[in-house]
Amino acid sequence: MRLLVVEDERRLADGLRRGLEAEGFAVDVASNGVDGLWLATEQSYAAILLDLMLPGKSGYVVCRELRAVDDWTPVLMLTAKDGVWDQVEALETGADDYLTKPFSFAVLVARVRALIRRGAGPRPSVLRVGDLALDPATREVRRSDTTIELTAREFAVLEYLMRRPGEVMSKAEILGGVWSFDFDGDPNIVEVYIGHLRRKVDRPFGHRSLETVRGAGYRVVDDGA
Ligand code: CA
Q: Which pTM was predicted?
């Protein structure tokens, strides 16, 4: 059985490879999110061990992009103890399970075997806020019966907000969730994308579902329009 390990800490990645091979697995290793995503989509794996904080693309983005192309390979997310991500957030990325570093190798192997037994998870349900619907699996966005074309990034921002309806998300949170963690451009890029989204999913339909909460961030609400 073949596993993919996506981990940029070389010592940890080497240790995982050796340990998992000793347990009878074949192991591929990628040291950044871009290579990890490429391998995950090119090869078939029994499970993927995915570090959350990665150069190139974060584990969050890798997992989301895999699910977006209907790849439901079980993902065990590896998160840092002092990270901003808690259990719920790790699972919200589309991961099936998570382990906080540092972890015991025996626990890791047990979790991996459990994930493989459980198999690929179900496709997620369509997200709905009022008559706005977003399907993470087919990448379709509809307002009532009208299909709306979004760019990949616009889709990601909208999905991020629609996974937390009514909840105010700061620019930093949206940046962390949608762009890679090492994004060092202008955080106002978030505002730009919210503007694009309003022009596509709200205004043509007379809605105001994408709200700016002054000094706090943005949220998507059912505005009842
Ligand atoms: Ca890392």
A: 0.57
